[in-house]
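Recap from last week: sequence in, structure out.
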Amino acid sequence: MKTEQIIFTGADGWRIKSNNNLKELAQLVFVFGNSALLKISEHFDHIKMSYPNAEIVGCSTSGEIF
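Predicted structure tokens:
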């Protein structure tokens, strides 16, 4: 199994923390974040464009997950 991690911050936007160049190969994406940020469609659109073949599962958190 290969993984990679991308993080969004208001100050820096999307940053790659670990890159295995999965893009079209990714089958499953877990999204964790603040519920207000998860409601912004541009964030979901970015994730879907980054991993077009993956199933995307998301949930809100009470804190930040790195």
